[in-house]
Amino acid sequence: MSTASPQQTADPTARNRLGDMLVTTFGxxxxxxxxxxxxxxxxxxLAAGLLLVGLGPHDGxxxxxxxxxxxxxxxxxxxxxxxxxxxxxxxxxxxxxxxxVADETAGQCIPLLLLPQAIGPLGGWWGAxxxxxxxxxxxRLLDIFKPFPAGDAQNIRGPWGVLVDDLVAGLYALxxxxxxxxxx
Length: 184
Description:
By secondary structure, this protein is an all-alpha fold.
């Protein structure tokens, strides 16, 4: 009878494949050009899809909860993927490697979380689509240019350095989207 733990008997290549799948957001990080842009698309598609099927934030309390729990779940899963598999990805591909886009997926969720509060001024489905697009562009620009302290956050060692700069960019994008919504 073997007393080996499940971790000792697990196939390391299976763990690598799982890690690659998660940190590349199911392969989106392998698309070119601009893998980070591809990685930022899933939260936007999720938000738009939820709004399309009537699970938007103005469709009642249950819909409001489903919208936010879905985005928070995606953000937390993407953060967990970066933290769990970021070291192995950096060991293979270098510091903050371009195929790793789970950090962009996580960061893009942030400006979409409070998007419901900003939908009103533009009104309806098209207003929501416009604000999702604005959130997408704002996040990508802020992720690329990395205003302080996002740029400095990349210097953090390990997987947190991959992730934190995108979360900061997401917070900046959230503020920008909310400010633009107030102006519209």
